[in-house]
Amino acid sequence: MTCFHLDDFLAGWIGGASSVVVGHPLDTVKTRLQAGKGYKNTLHCVLTIYRKETVSGFFKGLSFPLASITVYNSMVFGFFSNTQRLISQYRYGDGRHPSGMLDLTVASMLTGLVSVGLGAPVDLVKIRLQMQTQPKPLLAESFHLAGGGNGSGMVPLHTSSLQLQAQAQPMYRGPIHCISSILQTEGVQGLYRGAGAMILRDVPGYALYFIPYTLLCNWFSPEGSASAHPCSIWLAGGLAGSISWVTATPADVVKSRLQADAMHQRKYRGILHCITHSYKTEGIHIFFRGATVNAIRGFPMSATMFLTYELSLKFFRSL
User: Mapped to the 3 state alphabet, what secondary structure does 283-303 carry?
Assistant: First the structure.
């Protein structure tokens, strides 16, 4: 009997789609907090986005994650589940043997490592699109420029005109234009900017995602039950998501800053420079910026992800 199951990939695809729709608005807030400027706290960020960009601002860049993160989650859940079975087959001679703690750790960390290959470009494009803000009204911007800090209350006309033109259009028209622009200006390696920080985030992050989920599912389930109740799956998935995202926040901050960096003038030379520069200029607290959003966002996203995944898997296996 083969250990490879295609239904894990299909269920992961469905779960991924549902989690993206649920979590994208808070993901936008998280990205703006970590890589943007001028936000005092989470509430201020939410209100600023709403005032300047209305509700649509929270769904900026949604089309690309919806198309790509569904494939990404399909790969993550499919790879994790099939790796679990391969490890069980190798160690115990039976792919259906329950996984031990070491088995879960190896399978989840391998999943985190492999996921970066697809996840880094997906995250990069998503963040570049999320960081685009709507241009300010022309008249208001003109007044703002006219009151510039040169002491005279005026700036040269050609300067204000150039700045207004630069703000008149977003840098990227959409995900395809974003990808082509990055390839033209930064090459293929540009799509993998921040991949090193993503490895630091996802290798331990997935261990702190799948292991708590498995343990909590077993803990919440009645003794002797064949499968976990949907409520147990929902709660275990939500708690696992919050745990994983909160602990991954420092690496996530570095990743977000590196990936958003090339939108304007390059500021960071690499992971270490980003860490030291961020610490020197903004203090240790910057590495925990967005932790509250991550905790809040991680619960409904992961609860939806795991519940939809498990229910879809049950459906496919009943056919």
Answer: CHHHHHCCHHHHHHHHHHHHH
